[in-house]
Hints:
By secondary structure, this protein is mainly alpha-helical. The protein has helices at residues 3-17, 22-41, 53-65, 70-89, 116-124, 133-146, 150-154, 184-198, 221-234, 245-256, 261-268, 273-276, 278-294; strands spanning 161-162, 167-171, 177-181. Strands 1-2-3 form a 3-stranded antiparallel sheet.
Amino acid sequence: MDWESIIPGYKGFLKLEKGLSENSIEAYLADISKLRQYLELHQLDSGPTELGQEVLRSFLSWLADLGLSARSQARMLSGLKAFYRYLLLEDLLEKDPTALLQAPRLGRKLPEVLTVSEIDRMMEKIDLSKAEGRRNKAMLETLYSCGLRVSELVGLKISGIFRAEGFIRVIGKGDKERLVPFSPRALKEIDLYLPDRNSLAIQPGHEDILFLNRRGRMLTRNMVFTIIKELARAAGIKKTVSRHTFRHSFATHLVEGGADLRAVQEMLGHESITTTEIYTHLDREYLREAIISFHPRSLQ
């Protein structure tokens, strides 16, 4: 079978069987597109079921030659393995050519986190005299108080706020739902923002979305990231700030404060505790730096 006859079925499988979001599906399909690009450049007229281990290993070497990081190579190999598992499930293959392929070793990269004072400085740089000021402050307080992904933040619904219980309903990866506690401070900022939100001309289908742009529509992830970056710059923060910086800061501050790792896992929506364990490494790094900075034997 050729690529054009297989890809639509694979896309449907990712959406219906795996329950992946559109962004995740596009990422998986982009991995396949990269492989097809390699085949075209090297004049290899092969369908997906005709590729052997050696061709795929050469493809991975080509990615390294292009300068892709080890992390990007590993992610792309993971995408290819998922594709070939699908082909096996559909009985289009008898043997998986990716089975023996190994990803490059990854060093454990600790995410950048902000201190509480740095987060406060960013909050102080929000101009509340502007129409979007109250919204931005409510967004950042919610991000930090709940440890949300930006994609989860933009999808929050007013109907998902349970005030009496102190929880907010979050729809995470794979449309999995979880309840996350939120702080009284975040709720206060949301309440201060709601009158501005309700004065907008809200577009059909967006009536229940909490955070809206000036046109009454759901915000994009890129717009939220742009707001975060601009506030970090205004606050004089030199660290590399990403979409997940507030989420990492939330988790790190909880672990530093002695929170149970299982509770942090539940709040972050991690399927595996091993994903959450990176924050124990951050905590140990924090302790190591504290010893170096303040222990009398380290000052000599």
